[in-house]
Amino acid sequence: MGIFKSIFTWWDGATIGTAFYSMRKGRKVGEDAFGNRYYESKKGPRRRWVIYSGSNDASNVPAEWHGWLHQTVEEAPDASGIPVRQWEAPYVANRTGTGEAYLPAGALQKAAPRARASGDYEAWSP
Question: Fewer CB within 10 Å: C terminus or N terminus of the chain?
Fold first, then answer.
């Protein structure tokens, strides 16, 4: 099922065509802590892309690699040694649509009642 899945599915990793294109036209630049592989074109206009290790979700790209992908940083993060600040939180993938998603007070999915409006709103009438 592995080879069959990689030929026909695009939402869960790279397809066979993308993998062949990366080997033929691209040069591997690096890999992040999550197993995502980053490539740059060998010739022609400079293009950069990522092959995800899991599902194809852009929130799975850490900030330092995001800057490299969008060509705001010339050197790959491994080579440039971007320092980690003490106030930076560890990377967490987008949790929207999962059971771990953030739900503010008053959200329909929560059982808690919504806070009442303060009454400082006046409707405009022409």
Answer: C
Q: Token pair of 3, please?
A: 């080879």
C-beta of residue 49 within 8 angstroms of C-beta of residue 36: no
Q: Which residues contact 37 (CB under 8 A, 6 or more apart)?
A: 22, 28, 30, 31, 50, 51, 53
3-class secondary structure per residue, 49-81: EEECCCCCCHHHCCHHHHHHHCCCCCCCHHHHC
Q: Which of 2, 4, 65, 7 is nearest to 34 (CA)?
A: 65
C-alpha 28: how far from chain center: 19
**Each residue's pLDDT tens digit, 71-95:** 998 888 875 566 778 998 887 778 8
